[in-house]
Design a protein that fits this description.
Elements lengths: L1 E5 L10 H13 L4 E7 L7 E4 L2 E6 L7 H17 L3 E4 L5 H11 L2 E5 L3 H8 L4 H9 L2 E4 L2 H10 L5 E2 L14 H7 L7 E6 L8 H11 L4 E6 L5 H10 L6 E5 L3 H10 L2 E4 L8 H9 L3 E4 L15 E3 L4 H13 L1 H15 L4 H15 L6
Parallel strand pairs: 1-2, 1-5, 2-4, 5-6, 6-7, 7-8, 9-10, 9-12, 10-11, 12-13, 13-14
Antiparallel strand pairs: 3-4
Helix pairs in contact: 1-14, 2-3, 7-10, 8-12, 11-13
Length: about 375
């Protein structure tokens, strides 16, 4: 089967959840099919490349209102006519508007996979008739969680398949906690709290920083791994609370280094005000890291409270503080959660995700599944 996957941005320069998930979907699908990823062109990257068994087509989107998008679609149409895919797979509802219009010419089978942030966009723009039409006319719509499915059906009542993100279960093999703590300047007695993701208001990081202030233990360290618009505000808050010796802004790092920070840490905290299906939780699970996360979006579908982590209310520094201290003080609980997480992570192997995705593809095409 020839599969064309559309995503607005793509690694190596773009490393958000959708971009990383799309890379993995393409990589694992390419073991069974011919896969072409279509994305926008980033400066310094080739327009055409072949990596990890799949093709990447980076198409310019000139910064010209209306005309830029039109030129992008014209170039995409030319490429698709040449490749002749059996199926078009779109990794975002909002981006689907552009591909939907293009597909009126090509008349290909198309799938939309809602990824999380686009659900919020869908609700902000509920009256947008084109978004509803894109969803209604798609041959299949997939969501990451049952929570997302419910929200999509409020806007467009149709069949929705639920397939979660996946995780490479081998990414933590060979990593040594002691060696990595030494690498990152963490001594053996320090308890390390980790956040990994973008620094944006929706991530609720002010409440995590306030929780660390409540604990106020100089032998603890909070590592904020990632970048984003809220960094300056958060740095000022840390100074105001006088906990500069406890909080470290690591900044943007590679995927490999994120996994190293997870291995070196003692607990992951995700204090988000809104979430879809956060990959960082799956990665932490695979590492055996205990998790504290707010019960928003699809998070309660991943975290079984007090079994493989703790669910807390959003905007609640006191709850964050209590759960961190519980994990730090109770070694048996910490070990139990760690083992449960490693077992639970096996449900999210990429092989399982691709099996389910293939079932959707074959259901909506005339191609026989061999």
């Amino acid at each position: 089967m020839k599969i064309s996957i559309f995503v607005k941005m793509f690694p190596p320069k773009r490393l958000g959840g959708t971009e990383i998930a799309t890379f993995n979907i393409a990589k694992h699908l390419s073991k069974r099919h011919e896969v072409h990823v279509f994305t926008t062109l980033d400066e310094g990257l080739p327009r055409e490349s072949y990596i990890e068994g799949f093709y990447v087509h980076r198409v310019p989107w000139p910064n010209i209102r209306f005309l830029g998008g039109l030129l992008f679609l014209i170039n995409i149409t030319r490429l698709l006519k040449k490749i002749k895919p059996d199926i078009i797979h779109i990794q975002n509802i909002e981006f689907g508007k552009d591909i939907f219009l293009l597909n009126k010419i090509l008349r290909k089978t198309y799938v939309i996979w809602a990824r999380g942030s686009d659900i919020n966009f869908l609700f902000i723009d509920k009256k947008n008739w084109l978004l509803k039409l894109v969803l209604k006319e798609a041959d299949a719509v997939i969501s990451l969680t049952y929570d997302m499915k419910k929200k999509i059906m409020e806007v467009c009542n149709r069949e929705i398949f639920v397939i979660p993100n996946g995780i490479d279960l081998n990414i933590f093999e060979g990593l040594s906690k002691d060696e990595l703590r030494k690498k990152f300047g963490l001594n053996k007695t320090q308890k390390t709290i980790l956040y990994a993701g973008t620094l944006r208001p929706v991530k609720g990081l002010t409440y995590l920083i306030e929780a660390v202030k409540i604990i106020n233990d100089k032998n603890n360290r909070l590592l904020l791994v990632g970048y984003g618009e809220e960094r300056e505000h958060l740095e000022n808050l840390v100074k105001k609370l006088k906990i500069e010796n406890i909080v470290t802004f690591v900044g943007e790092v590679s995927n490999k280094e994120v996994f190293e920070y997870m291995t070196a840490s003692d607990v992951l905290v995700l204090p988000s005000l809104s979430e879809g299906f956060p990959n960082v939780i799956l990665e932490a699970m695979a590492s055996g890291l205990p998790i504290i996360a707010t019960k928003v979006g699809g998070v309660p579908e991943i975290i079984n409270n007090e079994v493989n982590g703790f669910l807390i209310d959003p905007k609640n520094p006191q709850q964050i503080c209590e759960k961190i201290l519980l994990i730090f003080k109770d070694k048996k609980l910490r070990e139990k959660i760690s083992q449960n997480n490693k077992m639970e992570a096996k449900k999210y192997s990429w092989e399982s995700v691709i099996d389910n995705l293939e079932k959707v593809y074959y259901k909506i095409t005339d191609i026989n599944h061999r």
